[in-house]
Specification:
The chain has 406 residues and is an alpha+beta fold. It has 13 helices and ten strands. A six-stranded mixed sheet has the order 5-8-7-6-10-9. A hairpin with a 2-residue loop joins strand 6 and strand 7. Helix 2 runs antiparallel to helix 3 and helix 10 runs antiparallel to helix 11. The radius of gyration is 30 Å and the shape is elongated.
């Protein structure tokens, strides 16, 4: 065989080997696509079933007069983790697929629909379970460097807030699902990345982690949330008297109370007020329970359900079933708490050391008797004393004014 023939043979063999490797790679990718699609389909099917089961359970419990609010945080966290992993896998596989773009696009649409269902669920839980989930709608663009960087930042943000902040990502240019297009048009999204935080605040362009923390803190750490825009009744109290009491008080509870009333007077209450209550070493179990309820009512991003559970424990130990029941109901986050009425309504009442729970029914406030029934008609001006703890929009805890301020 001549040298020329040998060279030609080498080229032919090299070409055939290269072609074989290329075809092997194609078939391998083709096979992997099917494996990936099958795996993703199974995960998304389970995700869809989990969501459907959660919603069905919620409907059943609502119909039977019970609440799913106790289980909601666990369920939301589980669904969030599953959605996040599916999103990562879907974006990774769809960019490396050569043959099954349509199949991946179909799964992508299903994924977006699951995100929209999650958004509806969060909105409902915030309303019905007194929750404070913050959804972030993240409109990105495929193969966009800024969108990719924003995604990494949002991953870190989501992990920082222990399930309270949930990121839902949508392809800005996706046209196969009308609901996505409607959502995009509703918020007039024309640029990527764009963030819609808490369904209200719109931010275009790159948002860095420090900026996002500030925005989220302002949403999640609202002080005294149920007393916003409340006009308090101060009676014979004066601002000077409150200042003097705050400055001279040796008792930590008195100092905290005067700090709260001063802040409300000035309309400038901040989370710093809670720090005064944190310094208190309770001298009795009653005061311990009141401090738990105070921490829950003043908000500032604290786990109010955990504080109410602690208050429930203390009231139970103190053999106070009425207060224990109220604390338990508050710890569930259930929207509609209906306390029973007494058959004998009176306008004569006293506010004991442990305070008086009041509930507003229509336009009237009623006080809770030891038997766990609403018995006392309470004047509105007494409800709006500056040391009242507003537990919800329709429920408050009245405390006697400190003797030094009476």
């Amino acid at each position: 065989m001549t040298t020329k023939h040998r060279i030609n043979s080498v080229f032919v063999y090299s070409f055939l080997i290269t072609l074989f490797i290329f075809l092997l790679g194609l078939f391998a990718n083709y096979g992997l696509d099917f494996v990936r699609i099958h795996a993703l389909s199974e995960v998304m099917r389970e995700q869809s079933l989990s969501t459907e089961a959660f919603l069905t359970e919620k409907m059943f419990l609502t119909a039977s007069g019970d609440t799913i609010c106790v289980d909601a945080p666990y369920q939301v966290q589980r669904l969030r983790d599953e959605l996040k992993q599916v999103g990562v896998d879907l974006s990774t596989y769809s960019t490396t697929s050569w043959f099954n773009k349509k199949d991946f696009d179909f799964l992508k649409r299903k994924y977006f629909l699951l995100e929209l269902r999650m958004l509806a669920l969060l909105t409902q839980l915030n309303k019905e379970c007194d929750e404070d989930y913050v959804p972030i709608l993240f409109f990105y663009q495929v193969d966009d460097t800024l969108s990719e960087r924003q995604g990494f930042i949002l991953d870190e943000i989501s992990e920082s807030y222990e399930g309270k902040v949930l990121v839902l990502s949508f392809d800005k240019e996706y046209k196969d699902e009308p609901l996505i297009m409607s959502l995009r048009d509703f918020y007039d999204v024309t640029f990527a990345p764009t963030l819609i935080i808490d369904l209200e605040k719109k931010y275009e362009g790159m948002q860095y982690i420090e900026e996002l923390h500030v925005v989220l803190q302002n949403i999640l750490r609202v002080p005294d949330p149920y007393a916003i825009n409340t006009s308090f009744f101060y009676g014979n109290l004066t601002k000077e008297k409150l200042f003097q009491t705050f400055a001279e008080a040796d008792d930590t509870f008195l100092k905290a109370e005067s700090a709260l009333m001063l802040a409300r007077w000035e309309g400038n209450i901040t989370c710093d007020v809670l720090s005064f209550y944190d310094l208190i070493k309770p001298h009795s179990s009653v005061q311990e329970a009141l401090l738990f309820e105070t921490s829950a009512s003043l908000g500032c991003g604290r786990n109010k359900k955990a504080f109410y559970r602690e208050a429930e424990r203390v009231w139970s130990e103190q053999k106070n079933p009425a207060r224990s029941k109220v604390a338990h109901l508050l710890s569930t986050g259930k929207a509609n708490i209906i306390l029973p009425f007494s058959s004998n309504i009176t306008s004569v009442f006293v506010i004991p050391e442990q305070g008086l729970i009041v509930q507003r029914v229509e336009e009237t406030w009623y006080g809770l008797a030891e038997e766990g029934v609403l018995r006392f008609v309470v004047p509105e001006e007494r409800v709006y004393y500056p040391n009242t703890r507003f537990l919800r929009q329709d429920m408050a805890l009245l405390l006697p004014l400190p003797q030094q301020l009476s």
